[in-house]
Design goal:
Length: about 190
């Protein structure tokens, strides 16, 4: 069984890292020497401190969970900004903004829906190229690369996807397929 001093140290480190004593004292709030007194057993740890520490840990956990969610939702946009800063090709249009707002899970669901639709149309129309689907696939692949969904953050591959996307969007434009159409087509794929 963990004694109170070991537990205090373990919880303090969990909440604030290796330099936890001053931060815990400030959060409780108690005088900073009080923590040292508790650790050296000069003073007993008051019973009410444990519920205060629990509240501190819960609050910090909620903050960390929010921060993790934020970075998960925003990291791909940071990578796009970095690609832009480095002068690399990246996708930045209305359709890409639509895809950027999707979660990683939604992007993977879209990939599955794309594959299903492409397979179906390839059988029905074996001689067609499906410019809309090619552009959607490039945009999906770009998102997979910049989101590091496959565990391999490859900006070179992302740049190749972006360049292919631009070529396929030119092809789409020759068929009068614009950004709004691409968004509508993507929504249609997701409904199937």
């Amino acid at each position: 069984m963990t004694n109170q001093i070991e537990l205090l140290e373990k919880l303090g480190i969990a909440a604030f890292g290796n330099s936890w004593k001053a931060s815990l004292a400030d959060a409780l709030p108690v005088a900073r020497p009080t923590i040292t007194d508790w650790l050296s057993e000069k003073k007993p740890i008051p019973v009410g401190v444990w519920s205060d520490i629990q509240k501190i840990l819960e609050s910090r956990l909620m903050g960390l969970q929010g921060a993790l969610l934020e970075i998960k939702e925003q990291r791909h946009l940071i990578i796009v900004q970095e690609m832009q800063r480095k002068g690399k090709a990246y996708i930045n249009d209305v359709f890409s903004e639509f895809l950027y707002s999707m979660s990683d899970d939604e992007i993977m669901t879209l990939l599955k829906a794309y594959k299903k639709e492409y397979a179906k149309l390839s059988i029905e129309y074996p001689n067609d190229s499906f410019a809309d689907l090619l552009a959607i696939k490039d945009a999906i692949d770009f998102n997979i690369c910049i989101r590091n969904i496959n565990g391999n953050l490859d900006l070179g591959m992302a740049e190749d996807c972006a360049l292919s996307y631009f070529n396929n969007m030119k092809l789409c434009a020759s068929f009068d397929l614009n950004q709004d159409f691409m968004i509508a087509r993507t929504k249609e794929l997701l409904k199937k």
